[in-house]
UniProtKB/TrEMBL annotation:
<dbReference type="InterPro" id="IPR003661">
    <property type="entry name" value="HisK_dim/P_dom"/>
</dbReference>
<dbReference type="InterPro" id="IPR050980">
    <property type="entry name" value="2C_sensor_his_kinase"/>
</dbReference>
<feature type="transmembrane region" description="Helical">
    <location>
        <begin position="140"/>
        <end position="158"/>
    </location>
</feature>
<dbReference type="GO" id="GO:0005524">
    <property type="term" value="F:ATP binding"/>
</dbReference>
<keyword id="KW-1133">Transmembrane helix</keyword>
<dbReference type="InterPro" id="IPR004358">
    <property type="entry name" value="Sig_transdc_His_kin-like_C"/>
</dbReference>
<keyword id="KW-0418">Kinase</keyword>
<keyword id="KW-1003">Cell membrane</keyword>
<keyword id="KW-0597">Phosphoprotein</keyword>
<keyword id="KW-0472">Membrane</keyword>
<dbReference type="InterPro" id="IPR003594">
    <property type="entry name" value="HATPase_dom"/>
</dbReference>
<dbReference type="InterPro" id="IPR003660">
    <property type="entry name" value="HAMP_dom"/>
</dbReference>
<protein>
    <recommendedName>
        <fullName>histidine kinase</fullName>
        <ecNumber>2.7.13.3</ecNumber>
    </recommendedName>
</protein>
<dbReference type="InterPro" id="IPR036097">
    <property type="entry name" value="HisK_dim/P_sf"/>
</dbReference>
<feature type="domain" description="Histidine kinase">
    <location>
        <begin position="219"/>
        <end position="434"/>
    </location>
</feature>
<dbReference type="Pfam" id="PF00512">
    <property type="entry name" value="HisKA"/>
</dbReference>
<feature type="domain" description="HAMP">
    <location>
        <begin position="159"/>
        <end position="211"/>
    </location>
</feature>
């Protein structure tokens, strides 16, 4: 919207100042400099009327002078009583004080001047000449052309704006009808590029939420049905069993299935609340290397059974002055989920690399596991998507949470095959700042 405001200011300045200067320059170039301006003619006529009025005040035959004057090139004189003029009192007062009064009509200009020592007024009638009319018409056409070009200039400015707004309206209508894949192509020169980008961001988020709802409903119907069936079968078996030791075994199994259900429900609720909680994220400068190093140390302490798996951390020299811009809690969740995923699928080694790029930090997590199966590669970052060959405990939400966190930080996350370790390789780009 800043571009819209700036372009509007530029158009207004160009239209009013630029066009005005151009027309003024052209008019001065092509107007006749030898012709006296009409203001000067009026001034001369006022002086002439005053002098004649003074002369007539001392003349004994004013009417003869008036009669003889009528033959002079259309300029006519007449004498009227000042009391017979239908004029407001202030104007009559000005006349009596010796001021001239000019009254214009469609065809002429009447200059009034009171005759000294008399109650009469001398009136000089000056008809408009063809030349004056032509000059008036020329000025009229120049003014009309100025406003016409002004309107054209504003229409040229408004045309792309109207076009983009119509495109936005049509896309919004299609999106409202359920075509959730509709997006606006943000033009390089667009007054509302910020609005279009925000619309695309909103549309993408809505599409993701709708997709998540579908996946959540599928997960609930599938993942909850299995432990419920096991619990039902366990309860039926338990009611038929009379041996105390065997009953305790069945009770433990039922409790384990209940724990799985509780864990699944908590996972569903946590993922459903993720979007709402991330609306209030507070972005600060985060030392991603120190954060990752701390998480790795905690992982090694929490999982003593996996000490045989080595977690390596590498960073380039420029990282000392490069910090990620984000929320500490969610960046910690991001790194933790990526490490947990890599540890579960690795055989012996997990490698973490952090490097600094212009305006971004790159976090790379790779392992020496079997890599990403082709059957889930496209839907890898969707919730509750798990490979059939994956025997690790979980519900397939960790990478979906990573995707959502990266999106909220205006970053990106991709996956590919690791050239070094031959397993999976996750690459995260986050906004950064130099300190």
């Amino acid at each position: 919207m800043r571009y819209l405001s700036l372009s509007l200011v530029v158009v207004v300045l160009v239209a009013t100042i630029g066009l005005g200067w151009v027309f003024d320059f052209v008019y001065q170039q092509y107007s006749d400099p030898k012709q006296s301006p009409s203001e000067d003619k009026i001034e001369y006529a006022e002086i002439l009327t005053k002098k004649m009025a003074v002369a007539l005040s001392s003349s004994n035959n004013a009417n003869a002078f008036i009669t003889a004057w009528q033959a002079n090139d259309g300029y006519s004189l007449q004498i009227d009583s000042i009391n017979s003029l239908a004029l407001p009192a202030p104007l009559l007062s000005d006349l009596r004080l010796g001021k001239s009064l000019n009254i214009e009509s469609d065809s002429d200009l009447n200059i009034h001047y009171a005759i000294p020592n008399s109650s009469d007024v001398l009136i000089l009638q000056i008809p408009y000449t063809i030349e004056d009319n032509k000059k008036f018409i020329n000025r009229y056409w120049v003014t009309s052309l100025f406003y016409l070009l002004l309107i054209v200039l504003f229409l040229l400015w408004a045309k792309p704006l109207i076009s983009r707004l119509i495109n936005l309206r049509e896309t919004a209508k299609a999106f409202g009808k359920g075509e959730l894949s509709q997006r606006i192509t943000v033009g390089k020169v667009s007054y509302i590029s910020d609005l279009e980008s925000e619309f695309n961001h909103m549309a993408q988020r809505i599409e993701d939420l709708v997709s998540d709802v579908k996946l959540l409903s599928t997960a609930v119907s599938h993942d909850l049905r299995t432990p419920l069936a096991r619990i039902r079968m366990g309860l039926d078996t338990l009611s038929e069993e009379e041996e105390p030791a065997q009953r305790r075994v069945y009770e433990k199994r039922i409790n384990a299935h209940i724990d799985d259900m509780v864990e699944l429900v908590e996972t569903l609720l946590a993922y459903a609340r993720l979007d709402q909680s991330m609306l209030a994220i507070e972005k600060t400068s985060i030392d991603l290397f120190a954060l990752t190093e701390k998480i790795i140390k905690n992982k090694q302490k929490e999982r003593p059974a996996e000490h045989d798996k080595s977690i390596l951390l590498e960073a380039d020299a420029s990282l000392a002055h490069c910090f990620a811009v984000g929320d500490n809690t969610y960046l910690k969740m991001l790194v933790n989920n990526l490490l947990l995923n890599a540890i579960q699928h690795s055989k012996t080694t997990v490698l973490v690399k952090i490097c600094c790029r212009p305006n971004s930090l790159v976090l790379v997590v790779e392992d020496d596991g079997d890599g990403i199966p082709e059957d889930i590669k496209v839907d890898l970052f969707k919730p509750f998507v798990r490979s059939k060959a994956n025997k690790n405990k979980g519900h397939g939400v960790g990478l979906a949470i990573c995707k959502r966190i990266v999106q909220w930080h205006q970053g990106s996350i991709t996956v590919e095959k690791s050239e070094q370790l031959k397993g999976a390789k996750f690459i995260v780009n986050l906004p950064s700042v130099e300190n």
